[in-house]
Model the fold of this input.
Amino acid sequence: MTFDFDHPVERRGTDSGKWGWFGEDVLPMWVADMDFVSPQPIIDALLRRVQHGVFGYGMDSTALKQTLVARMAQRYGWAIQPEDIVMLPGLVSGLNIVSRAVGEPGDGVLINTPVYGPFLTAPVNQQRTLQSAPLHAMQAGRHLHYELNMPGLAAAIAPHTRLFLLCNPHNPVGRAFTRTELATLADFCEQHNLVICSDEIHCDLLLGGTQHIPIASLAPEVAQRTITLMAPSKTFNVPGLGASFAIIQNPALRKQFEAAMAGIVPHVNILGMVAAEAAYAECDDWLQALQAYLTANRDFAVRYVEEHMPGVITTIPEATYLLWLDLRATGLGEKPADRLLKEAKLAVNEGSWFGAGGEGFIRLNFGCPRSILKEGLERIRALVAAAAN
Ligand SMILES: Cc1ncc(COP(=O)(O)O)c(C=O)c1O
Done:
């Protein structure tokens, strides 16, 4: 079966956050939301459910939990049980719940930067102390590669640190960490008795044959200290339906997590649950085609940067649909996204939103038809060229 990812979809006038936030003349390539129609089985399942016409309170879907148990076993050799799964309306909520559930006010939460903005704010929202170490950045020619920085983490940790927030695959630097890297990190967390919260929302957005390894799948001891966060939202382009989940195999940790949710976090939307079940049960062929399209988009964008943007350094993401570009040598200053918005009418994320090490960078979303990607890259090229003159 073939899928058409090339066809641009009109999203203006649909209350889309991505397309509605800025002016009509701005091309949006910022928030992690793709410009593709969701797979047909999801649309069909939603239509069937809507046609029923009764939208009373729901309950967790047994079929969805069974599908997830089978998926973790089949994709990762990871044996989980339906009761390990806690449904959530969103993963930013998940990051806040974990920060609230682990330790006490004043305790430390360790992260690596740059990283997805809510990693910086969730601990602080929950009266925890943020401790951070920069990722280890390595430049080779025009390319940038990041690794976990274990000496940096060892230097940043304090006696009251209780939690490590991991982003894998990593937003914004696009790494899918290897088994060896994850094992080193798991050892570190064991040595320091840290709970691991692993945000794996991008785990299905794998490019060019990359494998994803959930850190909890490394060993039962690692699973006992890990809360894994996942969702169909990024992969199947259903973030507006609000359905995601945590996998927590340690019953005591799960109880703590559920206690931190009590009375605050609403049940998952019934349509979100339907979409999640269809996504995971019926859309493997669509996902395979999406991965191939995104891989070609990545390659197109990296080549474009190499050929047309002198001075710009790029990651070559292994996963996600996010390109992390270093514009520090272009003369566009500390806030290049601001300049791009005002002068090139292109919305991308400002690197500084991702914390230390992001200043002078931008994050570009390439989850879109290639024609839109090309247009966005051309707008960056023109501004970079103008700044060089
Ligand atoms: C790493 C990461 N976690 C969480 C989220 C947001 O999750 P949600 O929309 O479920 O709150 C994103 C969205 O970009 C993300 O990149």
Remarks:
- Residues 17-40+284-388 form a domain with the Aspartate Aminotransferase, domain 1 fold (CATH 3.90.1150.10).
- The first strand starts at residue 27 and ends at 28.
